[in-house]
Amino acid sequence: MAKYQFTVEVRPQYLPQQSAPLEGLFVFAYTITITNTGEIGAQLIARTWNVNDANGHTEKVRGLGVVGQQPLLRPGQSFEYTSGTRLRTPTGTMHGSYLCVSEDGERFDADIPMFVLDALSDHFGPGGSRTVH
Fold this sequence. Notes:
Helix content is 0%, strand content 56%. It is built from no helices and eight strands. It is mostly beta strands. The strands form two sheets. Strands 3, 4, 5, 7 and 8 form a five-stranded antiparallel β-sheet that branches. It has a single domain (6-122), classed as Immunoglobulin-like, CATH 2.60.40.1470.
């Protein structure tokens, strides 16, 4: 087990009721579960996202915390939140990282693995979401 480690799970979902495909607007929600899988408590301080559409356009998003919070997670604890993004194309990807600080003052990055945003397929099953580790 690593001393400093957060594990991130993502469940993306297309939101057809908020999208306007004929106007080039595709809205997605994503639910993130962050789990402290390390040995020491740590706080999520900031986030960096890379949002990529199918036309090669990349938007970099940076900010403090997530959904207005900077959760402190003890070993084994999880924090879950839902946020969203908009694309100009029906498919795209997102990935990024969280800047974290451990209770003993060490800074580390928690990787957010790349996941696919897909408004074209309905193979996700009921609820339209899937889990990416």
